[in-house]
Design goal:
The structure is a single chain. This protein has 121 residues and is mainly α. It has a single domain, classed as EF-hand (Recoverin, domain 1, Orthogonal Bundle). 61% of the residues lie in helices and 5% in strands. It has a two-stranded antiparallel sheet with strand order 1-2. The longest helix is centred in the first third of the chain and has 22 residues, at 12-33. The chain is globular, with a radius of gyration of 15 Å. It is found in: Cytoplasm. Residues 1-25 form the EF-hand domain. GO terms for molecular function: calcium ion binding; calcium-dependent protein binding. Keywords: Calcium, Cytoplasm, Metal-binding, Repeat.
């Protein structure tokens, strides 16, 4: 995700960018979890908005279902970090195909496979 030049290693600058992202994710989580150690789905939605991510309801609930290991609507820090890394990776991948910046892309099957394989965590 933060190997910007995709050379398989992380430069110091890339590491700093990743560290900054993770600190922001953890800070938003800590602000909303109120000592419980988890976020409700409503709080996850609020946290994603604070982090600059906007998902419609079907996408949001699908992502939450994928990362909420207990399937109880409680997302813990490790799950939230993984969820945010996935969403950031998906955004980066989408933006690389959205060269006209219109918010829409057209992919053939091979491009779709490439995108999904690169968004795994």
């Amino acid at each position: 995700m933060y190997d910007f030049d995709r050379n398989g290693t992380m430069s110091f600058e890339e590491f700093l960018a990743l560290n900054k992202f993770l600190q922001k994710v953890q800070s938003v989580f800590s602000t909303l979890e109120r000592g419980r150690g988890f976020l409700s789905l409503e709080e996850v939605y609020e946290a994603l908005i604070k982090l600059g991510f906007s998902l419609d309801s079907p996408a949001f609930y699908t992502v939450c279902e994928s990362f909420d290991k207990s399937k109880k609507g409680m997302v813990h820090l490790d799950e939230f970090i993984s969820l945010c890394i996935f969403v950031q990776s998906a955004r980066n991948m989408f933006n690389s195909f959205d060269t006209s910046k219109q918010g829409r892309v057209s992919l053939d099957f091979n491009q779709f496979v490439y995108c999904t394989a690169n968004c795994r965590i």
